[in-house]
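Predicting holo structure, iron/sulfur cluster bound.
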Amino acid sequence: MDATSLSGVSVPLLEVFSTFQGEGPEVGARQVFIRLARCDLRCAFCDTPESYPTPEHGRLQLVPGGERDEMLPNPVAVEAIVAAVKRLDDPPGVHAGVSITGGEPLLHPQAVREIAVGLFGLAMRVHLETGGHRPGALKAVLDVLDSVSPDLKLESACEAPTPWDAHGETYRMLEAAGKLRAIKAVVGATTPPEEVAEAAAFCAEHAPSAPLVLQPVTPYGEGPAAPPASHLYRLHAAAGRLHPDVRVIPQVHHFLNLR
Ligand code: SF4
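Done. Tokens:
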């Protein structure tokens, strides 16, 4: 399939913009973010609650770092999203890749698929960020993606049960495809070391090739508090006994006032 065979699908869009990746092992890489609207989870630490409803318009940044945007009524055609990515990637190749995120992008597998297909031929890797709880939708798009970073939703931080079965299916599928970039687990001040140890053992069993990233909560609204440094050491030690590659990486885009 090539870009000319896009079928005209549209998708609820929050925004398309150029930035530096602020999470995980790719931190600092220049990427175009495609943030799709809607999420079926309600993590207590969520810093993008604006993604829950579909906004009236999707925002397509016209120039990297610029204030001028194109506002298109939702849902936005995939062709317009792909065109916005190409417009932002100036000079061509300045971005290491595209990150499709949300909300939960796997609520829209057909659009994810068509966006990736539309970007074929550009020197941009297509990466997906997901909560890691929708393996059926992931299976439908995995062949057109270069890499995926799923979450591990810890109950202590999300204030909702961890979807272990869906996580396991997701991780095994990505491991088998060789497309697993990293697994991210957000940790808070009340996250117990025992829970992180259980998560580390789970990841070592189902996704041994990927780093496990412990991401301290960025305090937001009424959400959980960030763990103090002394607690981070405890959490890292608990996970490190059971997993070969555990890293602590905060969200760095907030330091630069980037989205
Ligand atoms: S999966 Fe992401 S967007 Fe959805 S509630 Fe959790 S943190 Fe927010």
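The longest strand covers residues 13-20.
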